Amino acid sequence: MCGQLVIGANVLILASCSGSTWVRLASIGEALYDRKHSITVLTPENNLQLLQSYGRGRGFTFRTYKTEGAAIATTMDKFNKMFWKGSKLEQLMALFEVTEDLNQFCGNMLDNTDVAKSAAQFDVVLADVIEICGSILPLVHRLPSAIVTGPFNVLIGRFGVPSPIAYVPSTDSELTDDMDFWDRTLNSLYYIRWLVFLYLDDSRRLSAFSHLPEQVLSAGVSQVDLVLVNRDFALEFPGPTNPNVINIGGIAAQPASALTDDLESFMVSSGGHGVILFSLGTYSGSMPASLAELFAGVFSQLPQKVLWKLNGETPPNLGANTRMMKWIPQNDILGHEKTKLFITHCGSNGMYEAVYHAVPMVFLPLAGDQPDNAVRGVARGLGVKLDIKALTEEELLQSIKTVLYNDSFKANAVRASRIMLDQPQQPMERAVWWIEYVIRHGGLSHLRSKGGDMPLYQYLLLDVIGIMFVSCMTGVVVLVWACRFCCRRVSSKAFKPKRE
């Protein structure tokens, strides 16, 4: 019965970033608000207007703090534009720039006296995994914490979750869980690359926050009480997990609401051909004009109606069957009976909404978890994957027709949807229950794995393997020496009588 109690707790949400990370946090915050909890959002002063532009945060109290440098939106805009032409290495280096800004914001937050004075009033801190202070602020003020993250295996591993390289694909590797020798070799190299990146990132953080107590810096993310992962095994490959790591894949998905009369009329006008939804999320505003014209040209050749989210100039060759909008009620469109296909950049939120509503997809991943999400979608038979940086009209047109007219993709989407929906709790209910569980017990130290506290050489048993190797080699050397000694003794005794 205790687990069913509604607790009027004070929840602090840290929100330095916008986009899908904010949408996830705000969705959870609104669900907690509906449970009569008080929700306070702490964000940089120059980020407040952007957060509020999303129309999320019902019942929230927004508080700001001053920061040095540009708004995170400026950095993220450069980050997004780079993805259209940058290599994986360039994308990784751009990530350094983002984390540098987040380090700065976290430092400004910790130095803010108002934040320090009010921190003790909160019962739990909720943040996205990219939020540097999501793990530091709770440790400084001894508060329970919950982190929300996408399906980044390399980051989830930092919370002490085992990540066997033999069958758990490393982040950004674009591998499945069925790996041959060369795949496992490549997966190992990606794993090492991420270890180097995280080591360098940690080193910068240690330098940036050297004034903090050593136990705070050394503990880091391993002391986070609850990890909410935006994944579901209807799409994700299975692998080990920990009791404080909870899957909430599809948290943004829900039954479709009624559309506006204008949109409903557009959907119905598609007749038997149906509607194709095309959205690249926050990357829509940075799409090159030449690529937008390519899409417009392909769409104009289709009998379906196309609903296209694009925050940019209208292509001159836009067909009469295509409607462009700066904002689209994505979940509601995907849940409409006329929607036949979703062309997506493979963001976690959008993909799980499509799985929820059993809509097959064409995958156009750009960066982050998107390429890995696309590989998972292809492995589940939910669609086809294309390289958006080397896309041709013929390839795009053929892929759209393949997914639309091959019934296996729709059948697989229906199966994945049934698996995802067949659970005792919906993802949002699960997230709220576990956050309240953290509040009720003042943290989850009894569920945290010690794996996150161990140095890498201990975690991988390198010290044990090293000692065993040295011991075995020592034994071999001693055995060889003993055999040679015995052989010499025997041969010398055998040779002596012959001489006599």
Key structural traits:
500 residues, alpha/beta, Rossmann fold, six-stranded parallel beta sheet, 19 helices, 12% strand, glycosyltransferase
Please give the structural blueprint.
Layout (H helix, E strand, L loop, with lengths): L9 E5 L4 H16 L3 E7 L3 H5 L8 E5 L6 H11 L5 H24 L1 H6 L5 E5 L4 H9 L3 E5 L3 H4 L24 H28 L5 H6 L6 E4 L15 E3 L13 H8 L6 E5 L9 H11 L5 E5 L12 E4 L4 H5 L4 E6 L3 H9 L4 E3 L6 H10 L3 E3 L7 H13 L1 H15 L5 H15 L14 H4 L2 H38 L1
Parallel strand pairs: 1-2, 1-4, 2-3, 4-5, 5-6, 6-7, 8-9, 8-11, 9-10, 11-12, 12-13
Helix pairs in contact: 1-17, 3-4, 4-8, 11-15
In brief:
This protein has helices at residues 19-34, 48-52, 72-82, 88-111, 113-118, 133-141, 153-156, 181-208, 214-219, 261-268, 289-299, 330-334, 348-356, 370-379, 393-405, 407-421, 427-441, 456-459, 462-499, and strands spanning 10-14, 38-44, 61-65, 124-128, 145-149, 226-229, 245-247, 275-279, 305-309, 322-325, 339-344, 361-363, 383-385. By secondary structure, it is of the alpha/beta class.
* Reported CATH architecture of the largest domain: 3-Layer(aba) Sandwich
| Class inferred from helices and paired strands | alpha/beta
Percent helix range = 40-55%
End-to-end separation: 97 Å
Poorly predicted runs are: none
Q: How many strands appear in the DSSP assignment?
A: 13
In total, the number of domains comes to 2
Assigned CATH class of the largest domain = Alpha Beta
CATH superfamily of the largest domain: Glycogen Phosphorylase B
| Global Rg | 27 Å
Sheet with the most strands: spatial strand order: 3-2-1-4-5-6-7
Q: Count helical runs.
A: 19
Question: Can you tell me the CATH topology of the largest domain?
Answer: Rossmann fold
| Principal-axis shape | globular
Report the β-strand fraction as a percent range.
5-15%
What summary fits the major beta sheet? 7 strands, parallel
The overall pLDDT average reads 86
